[in-house]
Amino acid sequence: MSSTQRSDFRCWHRLRVRWAEIDMQKVVFNAHYLMYIDTAMADYWRALALPYESAMHLLGGDIFVKKASVEYHASARYDDQLEVGLRCGRIGNSSIVFEAAIFRGDALIVTAELVYVYVDPTTQLSQPVPPALRAIFEAFEGGQTLTALTVGDWAVLGKQASALRQDVFVQEQGIGAHMVWDDADAGAVHAVVCNRLGQPIATGRLLQHGPGVARIGRMAVNRGLRGSQLGREVLVALIEAARLRGDTEVMLHAQTSAEGFYRRLGFAVRGPVFEEAGVQHIEMVLPLVSEAQ
Q1: What is the pTM of this model?
Q2: Co-location of 152 and 283 in the same domain
Q3: What is the DSSP string of 99-162?
Q4: Same domain, 12 and 101
Q5: DSSP per residue over 177-242, as a string?
Q6: Which pLDDT does position 291 carry in this prediction?
């Protein structure tokens, strides 16, 4: 990777060098740079909107590292703040080449090239990179949008929303299935975000809680993709749906762990913490102002 620039990368992972990563020469031990890059790879898959394990299962394959080459340009030291840039450089028949660079500010510390092979997970023999996966890599590196949000009714979106609720509420959080679905789904407005493989990765619903009052609930985002603005996208779409039908307030019961997320979008706490479905919640509200006002 000659003349590597920060502008070469769309995906970034930021970290701070820890004491345990320093060697006797008081610089980062050389092998840790590969760990930094591998950690950044998780951010790359999030940027693709692909939950790695389920996406690979759907595609019928997996990717294995075949070769890793690292070139050291400078040393990083304890407490340095580093940024790891990662990109898909090229795709062969069965190979996928990633290029990485680690910077401290504008100073280039490390460049690397990792060659992966797409394989049959049972035989571990190489097979062609699926066209769908190839297209996703190319779309991301080309700056294209990788998700699609749909707002609609249960008849259209129920299957996708149900699958994600099952994963998040029932499997991950241990909430009883009888508390995850109810008759209100049939009359609610639903929002679902899907990735380019058609996997539902974020969802939520909008109810009529009372005259002029909307209620948002059943907000769920795939565990591996949290922090990538998908929940915000669903919430904004549902707020807009409430505004368009003339509601003057949106309320919701937020899990206390998500309070900060809703605050950042303008919601305020109303009332004390309470338990719902075995999880601590807080009521939060957002006043709506119509476009006419």
Answers
A1: 0.89
A2: yes
A3: EEEEEETTEEEEEEEEEEEEE-TTT--B-PPPHHHHHHHHHHHTT---EEEEEE-HHHHHHHHH
A4: yes
A5: GGGT--GGGGGSEEEEEEETT--EEEEEEEEEEETTEEEEEEEEE-GGGTTSSHHHHHHHHHHHHH
A6: 52
Q: Do residues 151 and 109 both lie within one domain?
A: no
- Using the 3D structure, point to which of 141, 168, 195 is the last residue of a domain: 141
Q: Give the span between the Cα atoms of 114 and 99, in whole angstroms.
A: 6
CB 141 within 8 A of CB 43: no
All residues at 6 or more sequence positions from 210 whose CB lies less than 8 Å from its CB, including other chains: none
Strands 213-221 and 249-255: what pairing? parallel
Over residues 243-267, the pLDDT tens digits come to 999 999 999 999 899 999 999 999 9
Answer yes or no: do 160 and 186 share one domain. Answer: yes
Domain that holds residue 259: 147-287
Residue whose pair of structure tokens reads 């940024």 in the numeric block: 83
| CATH code of the domain in which 64 resides | 3.10.129.10
Write out pLDDT tens, residues 109-159: 999 999 999 999 999 999 999 999 999 999 999 999 999 999 999 999 999
In percent, the amount of the chain with pLDDT more than 70 equals 98
Joined together, the tokens standing for residue 34 give 């590969």
161: closest CA among 174, 173, 149? 149
* 175 in the same domain as 98: no
So what's the pLDDT on residue 1? Answer: 54
